[in-house]
Amino acid sequence: MLNIEQMKWWGWGGENIEFDMDSKPELWPYIKNVVGIEDEVKLTPSFKYEDIDLPLQNLNEKFINQIKSFIDPERLRVDKKERLIHSYGKSFRDLWRIRNGIVHASPDCVIYPLSENEIASIIKAALDFDIVIIPFGAGSNIAGCLEADNGSGRMIVSVDMKLMDKVISVDKYSGTARIQAGALGPLMEKQLNTFGVTLGHFPDSFEYSTIGGWIATRSAGMQSDKYGKIEDMVLSLRMVTPTGTIITRTVPKSSNGIDINHICLGSEGTLGIVTEAVVQVHKLPEYRVPYGYLFPDFESGVNAVYECVEKYCPPVVTRLNDPGKTALSLAYRSRSSSFKSLLGKAVKSYLKNVKKFDLDKACLMLNVFEGDKENFTEIRKKVNRIYKKHGAFNLGTEPGKAFEKGKYDFPYLRDYVMDRNIMADVSETSTVWQNLLPLYYAVMDSIDKAMKQTVNKGFLGCHISHTYHTGASLYFTFGCQQAPGYELEQYLYIKKAAEDAFIKGGATLSHHHAVGFEHMPWIKDDISETGIKAVRGLKKSLDPNNIMNPDKIIPPLEKPLNWGLQKSDLEKLSNGLLKKPDIHSPESEAGEPDVFK
Amino acid sequence: MLNIEQMKWWGWGGENIEFDMDSKPELWPYIKNVVGIEDEVKLTPSFKYEDIDLPLQNLNEKFINQIKSFIDPERLRVDKKERLIHSYGKSFRDLWRIRNGIVHASPDCVIYPLSENEIASIIKAALDFDIVIIPFGAGSNIAGCLEADNGSGRMIVSVDMKLMDKVISVDKYSGTARIQAGALGPLMEKQLNTFGVTLGHFPDSFEYSTIGGWIATRSAGMQSDKYGKIEDMVLSLRMVTPTGTIITRTVPKSSNGIDINHICLGSEGTLGIVTEAVVQVHKLPEYRVPYGYLFPDFESGVNAVYECVEKYCPPVVTRLNDPGKTALSLAYRSRSSSFKSLLGKAVKSYLKNVKKFDLDKACLMLNVFEGDKENFTEIRKKVNRIYKKHGAFNLGTEPGKAFEKGKYDFPYLRDYVMDRNIMADVSETSTVWQNLLPLYYAVMDSIDKAMKQTVNKGFLGCHISHTYHTGASLYFTFGCQQAPGYELEQYLYIKKAAEDAFIKGGATLSHHHAVGFEHMPWIKDDISETGIKAVRGLKKSLDPNNIMNPDKIIPPLEKPLNWGLQKSDLEKLSNGLLKKPDIHSPESEAGEPDVFK
What we know:
2 copies of one chain form a homodimer.
Chain A: H1 27-35, H2 61-68, E1 76-77, H3 80-85, H4 92-99, E2 109-111, H5 116-128, E3 132-136, E4 156-160, E5 167-171, E6 176-180, H6 185-194, E7 197-198, H7 211-217, H8 224-227, H9 230-233, E8 234-241, E9 244-247, H10 261-264, E10 273-280, E11 282-283, E12 287-295, H11 298-310, E13 317-321, H12 323-331, H13 345-354, E14 363-371, H14 373-389, E15 393-396, H15 398-406, H16 410-418, E16 422-432, H17 433-452, E17 458-464, E18 471-481, H18 487-504, H19 523-542, H20 567-574
Parallel strand pairs in A: 2-4, 3-4
Antiparallel strand pairs in A: 1-2, 5-6, 6-10, 7-11, 8-9, 8-10, 12-14, 12-15, 13-14, 13-17, 16-18, 17-18
Helix pairs in contact in A: 4-18, 11-14, 17-18
């Protein structure tokens, strides 16, 4: 039997991988303190898929027979576990529902194609029998992109791309590689590395996301300052739609009318399935060294990041934590790492007494420098000079090494805290430099206020991890004790506070997490009503029967959008009725999306 | 009366500006020799617009009255000269026809709006009365983007954007500027420069093109290696369509579904009128110095360019001429410039005898370096080292200065030679590094063969002016004596040879000149049939009545595309029947576009 590795359906990562809390003795006490847990919390029970009721399976016999004519049985799955795994992505909303057995819609079967021809045949069959198709990479999306349409009564098929995972060819001289869409990050990089090249795309989800997923969601990796976002990397692609296959040419740039690559990029499975792409790759750098710095406060860190961009010398990784994320990072330090000694007594004393740091405001910056010896040295020298000017304290290579080691760990930690009834998730955006700090303060305030309308205390932090000539991203992480009986509403309320603040503050609904379902209430403000018409025109033209991942990105025309938060919930939450003391007065929000009116 | 400067309708530039041939004593003799003109050719007579018959003017009275209700009379023009000026762009095909009084279709009136509101009202009125709108910037397009639809019988209106020419605001800290779409290059840069910033976008057409036109055609400027193509510069824009106004948010990057900016970029006026955009700008560089080099041959020049890209140290301008373009550039040297001494006897002797250059193969490279002192010095040092390794001879700053001085002259020269019955135009493309030289040879061969099927000798050259991590552009210039009685067919035949070779060779139909009408036969091969469906879907959704610049980018659905070259012409031309000796045998072309079958 073909064994295809999937993430655990109730959390992040493979079934046997768990977050290693034991090696981080300061982390759980820190979290308990910051979210206000006094005693140890009982673990939620282990998860059995047998206990979960999925919606009645809707198998269209004619469709299944047609599929069986070209797909061998082990690549056509109808069993409960496969259905469950493909029901959701990995947002808090997804995980909380699945852990609590709430699955309103689920794929009726899962197909693992091996080729573009098979995909074309699957889509053709789906068209013939009016069946919904949801493309699936590794299932790590946190915007609700993978959630099945639940109203049409049509059979739902998840097309899992994981078997199409080859680097087809590498043109090292041109710096390009043709890669199948289902290649997971690590396997793809491994194949590329044998040619001495890298894509340079390392999103936090790297271990459990595919290049097809990155393209479909306009993903960004932590080295984007050098290598760009995925949309900057694609030279050409192939996408099978219900009306034919889009094929673009492998050229660096063109003026061939509207850029067809950009119609596929960010289409989130609503127009078709990306089967392969030619992307730019770079020779593996000779030198690569991570460094850590401590800035006296977030503002000075931001100013330093800005100056590096302005002076054309950004490191390959820039990750500036605000005080909240800095505290979390310091609590994270592993016993086995000498990072532990990072802020030992002597250093603390030096920082406080000599450098006059207020350690509650200090911000940890993590960088990676790379290049040939000359480039590496030049940029590091310039960055050091700029950082010093802005009051940074050089922490050496240990914090960077610790970061490199743990950089994909965060989603595992989320599972650990969810096991202990903590809600935790993220929201991220981008804006121009002038607006970066005002937006930061406004969003922090908005999330903090919303969170504290539901609980007495919580964790809130932010980091900057993608910089551009004109601005940067802001990535907010929040967590607090779940509000019993209102877990989902509480999450959505806080999520809404973040998104409202993004849009009100002139920023975008997401810098690299997609629209999916969770960000849909804000899309009209982001791209305008006429922008929505444009997307609708593409949809109608390429997928006239609306079989491809329906009701994503843009709100459905024929029914109201039910985001999951009712007016009555909003009132209850904003009045602080879920918690006992400290009732905050509600405040009117300018620009409330229609769906909440 | 409002005086709006326009280019001369029969050629490039203002009516009183002519190419200064007198100061370039070697140029005309060189051209005469290379195209085989033995005696001086008589000038074609001066051009009088009174002599030209325009199509019968079709003025919809109700529309005109509606427009007059909000546009003052001097901004609503119905006179012949205005109609003529707005009939065509500036390709050889355009200029030859207009000079010969061939105008099958022409705008019936020209409107100069002052605001987005006026544009919305114009489009609304056009919708009400079924009137065609053709957005017009400065009229420099050479792909047939501005040519009026000539079949529908509808009134045609040219909306000239030139009065919307303001830099609305500059955010120097963020490196952004909000600019109205009708701003011509020089006026825009002048306004930006007062803030100490530059857009860094200098296409060859800079003096007579607008930012709206750049956006609509995905333009590239000669500093794109540092500043990017226009599509890399746009953060947000506003575009009025017949179904509403697209408004995007000013953020550096987003993951908000399909990128709506990219639906407007390259839309060539077929979906709406771009009214303004926020683009990234850069602080004016402290240092800026042009340099020239001579490479032993094109291949070594290409290798040097490649190595600079690979080592992350491209100059801000890289312009590598092949031997043909090098000869033209050397003939171009002005009497007043010490560039004249560039290849004086001593230098020539040194190059031949010491450096062992074959001067017939030598290639002129022009560069500009800029930055603060540190960046400037670093890059120049690195580039010098790389160029030296590839056998380059450093010519100092004079050739670069001469290039900077004459960089916008070429289109004027084209008028000069057209006055003397020479056909001259350009075709350009891009491809990946691995394919660059093979494509170069194939296209040179294809154009050369086609040209020599019509005349005995001609000029053919190529330069590289835009480089990327994965490849570069190739820009071909060709010219020869016109074939009497078949001037247009001859031009189209040679154009076709270039485009056929691009597409056959895996390249794109244009790197930065747009599709318009002239490149339309190749669009299906470039973006695929399904890609065309996508564009058609956008068109149907945003411009359901097809009033915006109809029949551009994608072939019309309801009628066959008449490109202007019939099968009988093709046969005649490929059999060399237009010239007397040296009949070449015809050869079948793989991938002949439908329109020629």
